[in-house]
Write a structure and sequence with these properties.
Distance between the termini: 54 Å
Structural class: alpha+beta
Number of helices: 14
Number of domains: 3
Shape: globular
Radius of gyration: 25 Å
Order of helices and strands: HEEHHEEHEHEHEHEEHHEHEHHHEEEEHE
Length: 410
């Protein structure tokens, strides 16, 4: 009897992308669209959270086990039958824009579309994350033509394109580029890129496809410019967009959060694998590193402003720069929310009135963070490092404090 081999494990970059999506019921696929789709799990017509959770949990399980559509279909059929949703159901538009519509989740065609779109978005995001991690050794992406028997002519134009991993072209042309698109990319070395570009079948320049076309989302009124040959809704890079929307959504939540909630939210953020990609992006990304209302008040007084946001940010390039100089690791930077949220505020040792330091002892290690306020009222981390007990005691003594005021984190 032939040996049955276990499937290759699915990378956490793929399963993590899917599992960390928030649930957003929607009446139409246009309700959760473009960039927002990278951060939200949605199924058109699933206006009840129970139904949407059934889709996510069964897909997550199938994705983690490497199962195909037929196996997943049996699972979702069982779950939806128990909820009374496996079969034709009349769904009312919660927003009152469109008339009621008949949704049939027993339809093979509908289930295949749901399975394909969610699974392929997750795989594309995982592939993009891996590309960011390995771009130092594999700096180019090659657009590989579709495996379809009847390929789309507009996608064949993309095939053979060879561009650096960080070229803006991949912001919109990272496949899939349309519904049921089977195009892919392959990451290659500089040597292979140079060799392939000597053939007429490959090109190191962006293909000429004509001007972008406007697309109006009839549900929201939003107008976006879509590249020629790409279906509306598939004109974003799932992995890159996931990172950006993750940062934006967390930053918005921090403004009104309590200190304890802010620490929890930020700890979740820094544990998300997609945030680990931000420092590798070619452009500067401001990451929320902590929240401190007392610090915002103190530094706001220094520039005579009372409208300072308590959210403290750090630039992605700063993280790369410090890590490359044998400074704190990415894992160390994940301690920032706790250090900022629970640390003791001290004056700047050099007397800079627009800078404060925060010190905290986590386990047996002392940490110190320096925060500066810009003239525009933005709180930014200027330095972050371990410190010695002697240096901390000297600073505490200069500020008229003792070690007893320090809250230790285990």
């Amino acid at each position: 009897m032939a040996e049955i081999k276990k499937p290759f494990p699915v990378p956490e970059a793929v399963t993590g992308y899917f599992d960390r999506k928030v649930l957003k019921p929607s009446f139409s696929w246009l309700d959760i669209y473009g960039e927002e789709h990278a951060n939200a799990m949605t199924v058109a017509g699933a206006v009840e959270l129970e139904v949407l959770e059934a889709f996510r949990s069964t897909m997550s399980e199938s994705l983690g086990k490497g199962e195909g559509f037929e196996t997943w279909k049996e699972k979702i059929a069982t779950r939806l039958t128990g909820l009374g949703w496996f079969g034709p159901s009349l769904v009312k538009d919660p927003r009152g824009i469109d008339p009621d519509k008949l949704v049939n989740y027993a339809s093979d065609r509908r289930l295949k579309l749901i399975f394909w779109s969610n699974m392929n978005s997750a795989r594309a995001a995982g592939q993009w994350e891996r590309a960011q991690k390995s771009k130092r050794f594999l700096p180019y992406l090659l657009y590989v033509r579709t495996t379809s028997i009847e390929p789309r002519p507009e996608h064949l134009v993309f095939a053979g394109t060879i561009l650096p991993v960080d070229d803006p072209y991949w912001n919109t042309h990272f496949p899939p580029n349309g519904w049921l698109c089977k195009c892919t990319v392959r990451q290659i070395t500089r040597r292979e890129a140079d060799r392939l570009k000597t053939s007429t079948a490959y090109s190191g320049t962006r293909p000429e496809t004509g001007p972008d076309r406007p697309h109006v989302n009839r549900r929201t009124g939003q107008v976006e410019m879509i590249p020629e040959g790409i279906d509306a809704g598939w004109h974003t890079n799932p992995g890159r967009t996931r990172t950006q929307t993750l940062i934006r959504s967390v930053s918005d939540r921090l403004e009104a959060a309590t200190n304890q909630d802010a620490i929890r939210v930020l700890e979740d953020l820094w544990s998300d694998p997609f945030l680990r990609i931000a420092p590798k992006l070619p452009d500067q990304v401001l990451l929320p590193a902590g929240r401190s209302a007392p610090l915002a008040t103190e530094l706001g007084d220094a520039i005579k402003r009372t409208d300072i946001s308590p959210v403290i940010t750090i630039g992605s390039r700063d993280i790369v720069d410090r890590a490359s100089k044998h400074g704190p690791t990415i894992e160390d930077f994940a301690l920032l929310p706790t250090i900022i949220g629970r640390g003791t505020i001290l004056p700047d040792p050099k007397g800079d009135k627009q800078t404060r330091s925060l010190i905290a002892r986590i386990g047996k290690t002392w940490w110190q963070v320096f925060v500066t306020i810009s003239q525009s009222g933005v709180l930014r981390i200027g330095s972050f490092h371990r410190s010695s007990s002697k240096a901390i005691k000297e600073q505490l003594s200069a500020a008229g404090l003792s070690g007893g005021e320090i809250q230790e984190e285990q």
